[in-house]
Amino acid sequence: MAAHTATVAWTLKDGDDFASGKYSRAHEWRFDGGAVVPASPAPSVVPAPMSEPANVDPEEAFVASLSSCHMLFFLFFAQKAGFAVTSYVDDAVGTLGVMSGKKAMTKVELRPAISYAGKSPTADELKKLHHDAHEACFIANSVTTEVVIGQTETAS
Fold it and tell me: pLDDT tens, 72-81?
């Protein structure tokens, strides 16, 4: 099996007071290919200025990870089925709630808008493509979060 790594790095900034809790939680995610992503807790969890609203928060990254994995498998299965996808844009939404008495991402709704060159899948074919993508997605298979496909848009 393949190993996947990420480095998460944080440093106390000059003037911050760690002991009192008045310090920035902004940090970086570094990946082996060289990508560096500015990260922070969500401002709804840790208010600014101790968070950085412009940075990616773990909850957003979780939603993006599920969406990205689903999309990659959807594209694979669509290509195998003979559909020519020309664009796929998912405005996914994650819901923070309570599961087993703990705060958790309880639901992620994927809402892709997909365009095709030529023939578009029927409603049943589209449902199967999404089902197969969900079943194959490594990330969806790794979590207890409910992942649903919301209203999808199809355009040729």
Answer: 999 999 999 9
52 and 62, same domain (yes or no): no
The answer to whether residues 114 and 70 touch, using CB atoms and an 8 Å cutoff, is no
Show contacts of 32-36: CB within 8 Å, 24+ apart: 32/5
> What pTM did the predictor assign?
0.92
CB 54 within 8 A of CB 43: no
Q: Which domain holds residue 45?
A: 1-56
The pLDDT of residue 28: 98
If you search the block for the tokens 């401002």, which residue do you land on?
43
Cα distance between residue 56 and residue 135, in whole Å: 27
CA atoms within 13 A on the CB side of 71: 22
Q: How many domains does the chain have?
A: 2
CA proximity to 56, closest of 87, 94, 23, 89: 94
d(CA 23, CA 73): 40
Burial (CB < 10 A; 0-12, 13-18, 19+), residue 35, is exposed
Q: How many helices (H) and strands (E) does the chain have?
A: 2, 9
